[in-house]
Amino acid sequence: MSRVFVLKKNLTASSGDEEKKNSVETMSDYGNKMLANNQKSKKRTTTNNNKPRSLWNADPEKADITSAMQNVRGKTVFLAGASRGIGKAIALKLSADGANVVITGKTTEPHPTLPGTIFTAAEECKKAGASGALPVVMNVRDEESVQAAVKKAVDTFGGIDIVFSCASAIFPQPLGEMDSNRYDLMMSVNTRGTMMVLKATVPYLVESATNDRNPHVVILSPPLDFERNINATNYMVAKGGMTLAAMFGAIEFRRKGVAFNTLWPTGLVTTSALNHLFSNDPEKLDAMMRSGRTPQCQADAAYAIVTSHSRKFTGNQCIDEDVLRKRGENDFTKYDYMTLGATRDERLAGILAQ
């Protein structure tokens, strides 16, 4: 029996009606700037110093993405935050290969603007071929909630083999204008939330390694590439902490056979994470997403990582396109947002609740 655990959390507002209103207004302004900048250039690629690149382990024996294992059938995957977006795409990809998937998140009832719940995602995974699909309510900011979710996963499937941490609170701002409360929120969800999930799952990953089950941790965070022209320092610090967790985890557990890697997109990924930036305006969302790729690109790259040998691919900061090219993929047009449908409503069907 295989086990996979995926973590995804996307928070943007804290308590207080007025504070939430100000948050929405500020994020909408940020979204409008994104759209304006996007419309200045219709090219997917950016300048050479701003295009994301993978940072491979300096030891080539730890950077062999072609060291493919067979599959993830029967393994248990723990996904923190997989009710929609990248987390759900990864869960469906691994379900099609016969994995057990643990779908965690806070969405238990239909949301007015965000499609899907942990229960609907689990049902889709079952239909996709999952050996087992377990929806579990979990708040990554609450350690007891995380511990309880992990216990339920282990009680149900017998252990955990793969962990995905997609935790992400998003509130990018210029450093001099940073809202300290929002920064604290990002740190508690992104960096601390990831650490809480790792703390709870690592004992089972070590057990998985002992049983030669090829355990992996994949954290959805960016390469620490200081040659890139990156804005929003507050957000990058919160996400960078996740990357550090992966890199130090790779060092700590390299002799035990547990792989730690990160995964980040080449460019825009078309998910519900952008909705609040554009006040859930379908016209603006569709216009922005036309230059993006679907979450399937991340899912395919994630599959390539967790089917590689855990002792031969660890300590890498990966860009999805780089991973897939190393696995022989050359056609990336199939991931274009515009392939989702001929009309705006068709393209936004899985992104914005209709």
Provide the structure class: alpha/beta
Amino- and carboxy-terminal Cα gap: 38 Å
Q: Ranges with pLDDT <50 over ≥5 residues?
A: 8-21, 41-47
What percent strand? 5-15%
> Radius of gyration, Cα only, in angstroms?
19 Å
Number of separate domains: 1
Count up the helices: 10
Estimate the mean pLDDT confidence: 88
- The CATH class is Alpha Beta
Shape: globular
Please give the share of residues in helix: 40-55%
SSE topology string? EHEHEHEHEHEHEHHEHH
Q: Write the CATH fold name.
A: Rossmann fold
CATH homologous superfamily name?
A: NAD(P)-binding Rossmann-like Domain
Largest sheet: 8 strands, parallel
Q: Give the second-level CATH assignment, the architecture.
A: 3-Layer(aba) Sandwich
Number of strands: 8
Description:
It contains 10 helices and 8 strands. Strands 1, 2, 3, 4, 5, 6, 7 and 8 form an 8-stranded parallel beta sheet that branches. It has 354 residues and is an alpha/beta fold. The protein is globular, with a radius of gyration of 19 Å. Helix content is 40%, strand content 11%. It has one domain (4-40, 54-347): NAD(P)-binding Rossmann-like Domain (Rossmann fold), CATH 3.40.50.720.
A few lines on this structure:
With 354 residues, the protein is of the alpha/beta class. Helices cover 40% and strands 11% of the residues. It has one domain (4-40, 54-347): Rossmann fold (3-Layer(aba) Sandwich).
Secondary structure blueprint with pairings:
Layout: E1 4-7, H1 17-40, E2 76-80, H2 85-95, E3 100-105, H3 118-128, E4 132-137, H4 143-157, E5 162-165, H5 180-210, E6 216-219, H6 233-252, E7 259-264, H7 282-289, H8 296-306, E8 317-319, H9 320-326, H10 344-347
Parallel strand pairs: 1-2, 1-3, 1-5, 2-5, 3-4, 5-6, 6-7, 7-8
Helix pairs in contact: 2-3, 2-8, 4-5, 5-6, 8-9
